[in-house]
């Protein structure tokens, strides 16, 4: 056996890699700053991936892989780092992806979140959604939010419901209860129902993945709790539509009315490769629920929300496109990234051309 799991994990930590991929037929692969790099070394054979997998996977999880085709769990590598592990079968062989969970929590400023988002952490009740594709840093953003509330809110019992638990929070000013789905409780929806009997002030739901969980989260927000949840959507309008459309048609109007009152904000984020130095930078769209936005949600006019975000800077709102332009002007991302990630490519092209002409005019003057 040519590879030891501890050596591979040490390499991931020392290289600052986000992920480690183990597959039969190629050497181990690490992802650094978004790019996949193969490790110099022999190709993995079926017995290698199985042995590596067994070195960190419990018998229960191995059984789960055999029965269901996959298992996910959190795993601590000595005192050095934590990993989120996904074990699965591929072409009949065992395969794994290990994602490194940063051990140091970032501040809101380091993440790049504006002050308007910090204000959400002190709301007495309501629903705050953090959305974005897989790997866009939602978990990190939420963990940082929890950390700030934990440090500053002596009035808060924070319950997190996660699958698996990624960041461990110690009790600071607040009391933090962390429950892992499949280990401490069977499902997100069940954990949410139970949470309401556990004197919570803040509830974090790792993922609003089904109708039952969404319903329970909205109810919890309505009954006077501050609820944070994540969805794999981009942009506020799509997020609201995604929740509404998860419900049967005859319930959708009711859900829109509920959302229009309980929703506090939608924070959408993407992680983009930096052009000025190694690493990645987060870009955001922030929608805060004002009376005008609330009316649009209630009247099923979510397509108009974007124009409210554009004009809502005084409420702390920002569009994804303005954030992209901002990062581009700071020299952090390329023009190509701005155009491909933009929600309105033709509008952003015009904006970029305006910036170029203004630059040229300045240079000429």
Protein model, in words:
With 365 residues, the chain is an alpha/beta fold. It has 15 helices and 13 strands. The protein has helices at 5-15, 46-54, 59-68, 108-111, 115-120, 138-152, 188-195, 211-222, 236-245, 249-262, 291-298, 305-310, 320-329, 335-341, 345-364; strands at residues 19-22, 29-32, 35-38, 70-77, 81-90, 93-101, 126-131, 157-162, 175-180, 202-205, 226-231, 263-273, 280-288. The termini are far apart. The model has no long low-confidence stretch (mean pLDDT 93).
Share of residues in helices: 40-55%
C-alpha end-to-end distance: 67 Å
Class by alpha and beta content? alpha/beta
Uncertain runs: none
**Gross morphology:** globular
With strands numbered from the N-terminus, the spatial order across the biggest sheet is 9-8-10-11-7-12-13
The strand count comes to 13
| Percent strand | 15-25%
- Mean pLDDT metric: 93
Largest sheet: 7 strands, mixed
Q: Based on the structure, what is the oligomeric state of the protein chains?
A: single chain
Write the H/E string, N to C.
HEEEHHEEEHHEHEEHEHEHHEEHHHHH
**CA gyration radius, whole angstroms:** 22 Å
Put simply, the count of helices is 15
Descriptive key words:
single chain, 365 residues, alpha/beta, 7-stranded mixed β-sheet, 15 helices, 13 strands
């Amino acid at each position: 056996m040519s590879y030891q799991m501890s050596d591979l994990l040490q390499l991931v930590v020392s290289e600052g890699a986000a992920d480690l991929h183990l597959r039969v037929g190629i050497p181990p692969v690490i992802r650094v700053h978004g790019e996949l790099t193969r490790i110099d070394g022999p190709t993995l054979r079926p017995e290698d991936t199985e042995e590596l997998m067994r070195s960190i996977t419990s018998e229960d999880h191995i059984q789960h892989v055999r029965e269901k085709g996959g298992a996910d769990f959190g795993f601590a590598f000595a005192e050095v780092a934590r990993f989120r592990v996904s074990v699965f079968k591929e072409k009949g062989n065992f395969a794994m992806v290990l994602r490194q969970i940063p051990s140091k929590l970032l501040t809101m400023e380091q993440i790049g979140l504006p002050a308007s988002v910090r204000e959400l952490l002190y709301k007495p009740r309501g629903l705050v959604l953090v959305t974005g594709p897989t790997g866009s840093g939602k978990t990190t953003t939420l963990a940082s939010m929890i950390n700030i509330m934990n440090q500053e809110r002596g009035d808060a019992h924070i319950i997190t419901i996660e699958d698996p638990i990624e960041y461990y929070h110690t009790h600071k000013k607040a009391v933090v209860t962390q429950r892992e789905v499949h280990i401490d409780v069977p499902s997100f929806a069940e954990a949410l129902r139970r949470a309401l009997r556990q004197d919570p002030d803040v509830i974090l739901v790792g993922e609003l993945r089904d109708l039952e969980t969404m319903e329970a989260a909205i109810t919890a927000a309505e009954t006077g709790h501050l609820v944070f949840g994540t969805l794999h959507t981009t942009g506020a309008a799509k997020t609201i539509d995604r929740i509404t459309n998860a419900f049967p048609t005859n319930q959708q109007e009711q859900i829109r009315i509920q959302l229009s009152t309980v929703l506090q904000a939608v924070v959408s984020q993407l992680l983009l490769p930096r052009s000025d130095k190694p690493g990645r930078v987060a870009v955001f769209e922030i929608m805060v629920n004002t009376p005008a936005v609330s009316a649009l949600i209630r009247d099923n006019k979510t397509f108009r929300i974007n124009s409210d975000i554009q004009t809502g800077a005084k409420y702390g709102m920002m569009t994804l496109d303005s954030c992209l332009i901002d990062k581009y002007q700071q020299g952090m991302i390329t023009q190509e990234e701005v155009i491909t990630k933009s929600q309105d490519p033709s509008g952003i092209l015009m904006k970029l051309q305006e910036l170029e002409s203004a630059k040229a005019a300045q240079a000429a003057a």
